[in-house]
Amino acid sequence: MHQKTILCVASYFKGARFIQAAKAQGWRVLLLTSHSIKNEPWPWASIDDVFYIADDKHKWHMPDVIKGVSHLARKEKLDKIVPLDDLDVEKAAELREHLRIPGLGATQTRFFRDKLAMRERAQAHNILVPPFTHALHYQTVTDFASRVPGPWVVKPRSEAGSMGIKKVYTTEELWAVIHSLGDEQSNFLIEQFIPGDIFHVDSIFVNGKAIFQLVHQYENPPLAVTQGGGVFCSHNVLYKSEVDKALREYNKTIQKTMGLKNGVAHTEFIKAHADGQFYFLETAARVGGAHIADMIEASAGINLWEEWGKLECLHEDEQYQLPKIRKEYGGILITLSKVEHPDYSAYTDPEIVWRMHDNRYHAGLIVRSTDLERVKSLLDGFSERFRDDFCA
Question: Across the beta sheet with 5-10, what order do the strands follow?
Answer without folding.
Answer: 49-53, 28-34, 5-10, 80-83
